[in-house]
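Exercise 7.
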Amino acid sequence: MKFMFSADKRSYKNMRNDELREAFVTDPLFIDGSINLTYTDVDRGLVGGIVPTSQALELPTHKQLAADYFCQRREAGVINIGGSGSITVDGQIYAMANRDSLYIAKESKHIEFRSDDKSMPAKFYLVSYPAHRVTKTVHVPKSLAHTIHLGAQETSNERTIFQSIRPGIVDSCQLVMGITELKTGSVWNTKPPHTHFRRTEIYMYFDLPVEERVFHLMGEPTEVRSLSLPGEVAIASPVWSIHSGVGTTNYTFIWAMGGENQEFDDMDHIKVSDLK
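Solution. The predicted structure, written as tokens, is:
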């Protein structure tokens, strides 16, 4: 498990791009046959890529979690962005098609990941936050996610949001998670930019051709920095940072939030003209 120690809203203004990456951006997440985890001190979030091939992969604990097993004091959300597979939680098997989500409740002890076909392996993206109560593990197919259509072609931000782990579908402690798919010709992941002081966010961009990039915007509105990101890395966004990004083509991303408030619309919007 790797670790990212974030910068504060004063020091980031003087950091080089490589220093910002070290503080907020993971390495490539998905490696065949392995579990690749990164812990960030932004709300103690933990993000991972899990790609089982010829054999099942069991989610381990780590010394730094000071736990007997991974979810002893944590909840986790998993979305599959690869081939079909399954996740077994304490003996219960959940089939995971592409874009399916699984919420894994606190105190789930044995968690295993499998691919149906090692030549087209599942790619499980995991985000975990500390949890304060025991809830229930819930499988959410993409078809059952709450769907919202936002934006317009004229402003290059026409997109569909699939809220899979959210109140009304999953009773989580603090985790809210889902997928945003941008329409062809749209490149802004959210417009106008916003902040939400009551919760932090982790982004993971994918469905991005290898030669294309997403320019993730971060920082305070009057001190904006940009990081050029390939697909299949994650970036942690602290409460003081704007949440926005623009790509060189359309793409898909998974957002995951933890904090005090689970209301999706709890945003403080910022005019594009006020960004500096």
